[in-house]
Design a protein that fits this description.
Layout: E1 9-13, E2 20-25, E3 30-34, H1 35-40, H2 45-48, E4 64-70, E5 74-79, E6 87-89, H3 90-95
Antiparallel strand pairs: 1-2, 2-3, 4-5, 5-6
Bound molecules: zinc ion (2 copies).
């Protein structure tokens, strides 16, 4: 087996009507990612501009209409306002976890 267990999802659930996505990882970690975190940290160039630190951009629609897998490395969401340019790599999704264990080292884009 290749790759990092920390950034290999074994289960992704986005319960309809809930404003959270649940991801379980191959290392046993469980992440609960609120939609406002996912949308606010959308990694696309429209939201993030060019370069610099990844920033939280408030105000986007928080309904997820559709989820597509991109290759074997990322997910792409279509939001209620049809914004769909963000490609969320599994590494990036793991970096957005703010559970008790992850919060002290929380830094979007960085998995310690
Ligand atoms: Zn975006
Ligand atoms: Zn965590």
């Amino acid at each position: 087996m290749t790759g990092d267990l920390k950034i290999t999802p074994t289960m992704v659930k986005a319960p309809h009507g809930a404003r959270v996505m649940n991801i379980e990882w191959a290392d046993g970690h469980k992440s609960v990612l609120p939609h406002d975190t996912l949308r606010g940290y959308c990694p696309c160039a429209v939201c993030q501009g060019h370069g610099g630190e990844i920033k939280y951009v408030p105000g986007g629609d928080l309904d997820i209409r559709d989820i597509q897998q991109v290759g074997n490395y990322a997910l792409q969401f279509t939001w209620g306002d049809r914004h769909d340019t963000g490609i969320y790599t599994f590494r990036y999704l793991r970096s957005l976890c703010q559970c008790d264990e992850c919060r002290p080292t929380f830094e979007p884009g960085k998995v310690p």
